[in-house]
């Protein structure tokens, strides 16, 4: 639930011509920059399905993005909250309070409800339709029974979902507020301290949101157990042991003894299954990845990663941290899918934007899981799986320290200053030596990846790449070194080759399916791709849309056979709503699985088009030649 400070951020970012940094927002609202970033994550999480999102441009700031009419709707709500019109007398607040009262009471007559809400009976009758509308979202019914009153009826799991949304809330400081009449302050404090102490004593570290989610599910379980409301249709027949079951069982057993609450087996299973609680530190006795993974899952993961290795060259099985966490998560995902448990992923859009290659690995995993286990993963779950691949890839990148040697024809002091600037400005660099130019042969004896020289060194023997910088203390020189170390010249040439003069189009269309079909048709006609590629791209779009903000969408698909990797480019005559964002530039990427190197180029492509000014220039392009000039300048 968003607070007034969240809505202030929305208001400040609503000006279409202004970007604000986290520091500027922090000053306006009176919090830290770190808190601003957390608030923005909260806002994007809550607005996930509203087609509006706060986007960031590196070095520029944050801005509210989305279709104008949806932004206006969000802004209208924000202004209402900011101006204090959200008082307890608002219809929304009345409905929320009424639902909370119905949760806490088995039956309430209209007169009793009116009395507790301090309203007239006629006012209660008028808002009945809105209460029913809220309950419909949970597949629950508002039922009236003669001589007893009104109550909420429906599946127990759905009632618990309603309770979690209406009766348990956290403020900006992670302090919990519980609106359940049969849960006392003692219950809350005891539960929170028991969970925290148990995890801490066993070196089990969980994120704040995971902790809050776990505590909330335990409190709901306590409340419903006190009311003798049991779950009848909980999935209990899986052959897979829940990865966190032992921890949950032990915590709730302690609470059972200290608070005298008779939890049954179904409550342990409910909390374990629905908390989304993940254990990554296996110091807890008797909890090991091997013990929660049967042979079927083990062989599946091995075959999956072997296939990814064959296709891409990435050997994730060597990363033991990845293997432990990934193995556990695959089991969790299977359990969630079989029980139809949905856990929202607040970082989904960021994962899709910043880790496109890893998102594809996750989608490939989801397809293989469907084939092997007959389970269908939703987009949020696929995003969680992508995070494991992303973490592994970041570890790989961290280990790729580039060793360089500096040849400098200036004095030693200047050379050392140059070396310190490089270390400060460029990540993952180790300088193994600084030599005068006349000692170039000595530099070649060092085991380095690059030599940086202040002059053109002729007749330098060996195969070590040399980066020539003239004004070594300038920002341009540092940028040149950074770009060369990040993306080799050969890789840039590969990217250029993936664009084709017969695959650049100016298109008029109103829907993404129409655009993809048009690009595919034209590319097929000139022999760049096969007819089946369009269907593959559309299938991938159904799983997870590829609009990434900045007016860009990147639909894509792997291809096989003799066709080279190619990127089809379409500039639309006007923006269209793709899924969550408006789009006017479409890059349809078709990469041949036999060309492993193109996966990294694919990722670099995403980073390139984060430049909003570059995208604006592309939108103005009318020819392939002008497009390539912009791309080459951008790179």
From TrEMBL:
This is Lichenan operon transcriptional antiterminator. Pfam families: HTH_11 (PF08279), Mga (PF05043), PRD (PF00874), PTS_EIIA_2 (PF00359). PROSITE patterns: PRD_2, PTS_EIIA_TYPE_2, PTS_EIIB_TYPE_2. InterPro entries: BglG_antiterminators, HTH_11, Mga_HTH, PRD, PRD_sf, PTrfase/Anion_transptr, PTS_EIIA_type-2_dom, PTS_EIIB-like_sf. Residues 496-634 form the PTS EIIA type-2 domain. Residues 402-493 form the PTS EIIB type-2 domain. GO terms for molecular function: protein-N(PI)-phosphohistidine-sugar phosphotransferase activity. One of its GO terms (biological process) is regulation of DNA-templated transcription. PANTHER family: CRYPTIC BETA-GLUCOSIDE BGL OPERON ANTITERMINATOR, LICABCH OPERON REGULATOR-RELATED. Keywords: Activator, Repeat, Transcription, Transcription regulation, Transferase. Residues 292-399 form the PRD domain. It comes from the Bacteria. It comes from Anaerosolibacter carboniphilus.
